[in-house]
Amino acid sequence: GNTAAGVYKYDGPFTCLIDVKAIPDLYTCQAGPPLVVGSAVSLSSLVDLLQAGSDRSPAYSVLVEHLLEIANVSVRNVGSWAGNLMLKHAYPEFPSDVFTIMEAVGAKVTIVTRNSRETMTMVDFLKMGMAGKLILSLEIPASPPNEVFRTYKVMPRSQNAHAYVNAGFRVRLDGQSVLEKPFIVFGGINKTMDHAVATEDFLVGKDLLKDETLKGALSILETELNPDDSSLSSPGYRKSLAMGLFYKFYLSAIGPDHLTAEVCSAPDPLVRPVSRGEQHFQTKESEWPINQPMPKLASKLQASGEAVYTNDLPPLPGEVYAAFVTSTVGNCKLGTIDSSLAMTLPGAVACLTARDIPGVSNFGRPMRQPEEILCSEEVLYAGQPVALVVADTQSHADIMARAVKVTYTDPKPPILTIQDAIAAESFFPGNDQEVTKGDAEGAIAAAPHVVTGEVSCDTQYHFHMETQVCHCAPLEDGMEVQSSTQSMDGVQAAIAQALGIQANRVYVSVKRLGGGFGAKAIGSKLVAGGCAVAAHALNRPVRLSMSLSSNMEAMMKRAPYLLKYEVGFDGEGRLLGIVYDLYE
Fold this sequence. Notes:
Blueprint: E1 29-30, E2 35-38, H1 43-52, H2 58-67, H3 73-78, H4 81-90, H5 97-105, E3 108-112, E4 117-121, H6 122-127, E5 134-140, E6 147-154, E7 165-174, E8 177-178, E9 183-187, H7 197-203, H8 211-224, H9 235-254, H10 299-304, E10 320-326, E11 332-338, E12 348-352, E13 378-379, E14 385-391, H11 394-403, E15 405-409, H12 418-423, H13 440-446, E16 449-457, E17 469-475, E18 478-483, H14 488-499, E19 506-509, H15 519-538, E20 542-545, H16 548-554, E21 561-569, E22 575-583
Helix pairs in contact: 1-2, 2-5, 7-8, 8-9, 14-15
């Protein structure tokens, strides 16, 4: 299904893609036990097979519940279990749910070449080079009555989310004693850890009801868990999760008859009920239709997907697509821009730089500090557009942008926070203002109570669903522009300034916005300016639709602020004087 492209977007480019859906041998299934599933079987079909066989093994039901937490229904319908496993093989840091739970249940995978066939464990599969080899099938054993098997996944959302930590545990018991080496498998800890081997060895033959067994296992497990920084969540958090999941399983293995009231609910899964909501409007019917509640006029079109946005407009004859090349370093000077490799890629049309802008490379407001459409010398921030590539499709343009090589000179220490900017005295000129009303300092000095402190908020991304997008088509007397903008006059002025033409020759229209929240008041002018420059240079229609990653890199955010205050007040809480410094 090629669903891995949603995880590792920059994997490739590949010269050949092979569709395996028409190979019958990869769909071969045997009900078993053990259950044997071909490698081209989708995750959704695997769920169906496990559910059908759940009467033969309770472990199959556990696997079903976990598999339903992978991605979403659409992805599971086309993505195969083997594809998920190959992601883990190619990227060891990938927290593959398929690998973790199948290794924990004791499943084995069969690998074939032209002349050989070999069945092995999941761990051995990761160690094997897969060049010239193919995953044929998966063999999932049934669990015996004296076995306890559980899997867990902690993730930020109930779908479309990778695990912070996932885990699978399996133990065979004789009463409350561990018969043989259990399976303690973790994902999301680091690139190399799969089994907690020392903890597994410690538990062999131990009585789970004894306090020293639990204490000893937790102590050893704590030393084995060494999370790295390959995840967005902190190592300490992931270690705490892993310890908690093991404790949760341990209580499950003991069974409810041996648990105290304080912990008897701990083994149970946390099941969130179906959400519901109601909306009530406090209006007076006697005043209707003045304040009568009614749906937004466009709501049905938007909810049904029929609403047309800028990027839904059909392409014009000869239309091409653009993408920004963004800087990877900030607070430095631009060195060289080498587009030679990018221009050899399929569909490449052009690579434009600041020298190709016929007018003024500035999308900012007049009389303010210039904001360049394409950087010409001073790189202000990582993610600033330095060039614009054009190709025959948007995907080709995005690939071209990543192939352009940029060098930088005169690097300075990065300024990452507003506190860094204050310490470096990096202020926009002309923006310092002092407002005084009365003698605040005198009032504070005479006040019986004085407090000081700070209030701050960091940078915020606007998170509009539709990214920045613009469509420009040259006309005989100017430029026709369809822009997803909150500032039509700003887009008109930015394009006129960049092309060196009169503003009345730029015809701007807006169909609708897929969210803006202020981001498309200024940011849309950067995109429109770049798109118009490309359309003017090539004399053909150009569409610039930013990917989510480039949108987050290049677009300005809600500005951070820091307020330092000193307040004087009396014994009854009345404010007598306030002095504050506001940085934004």
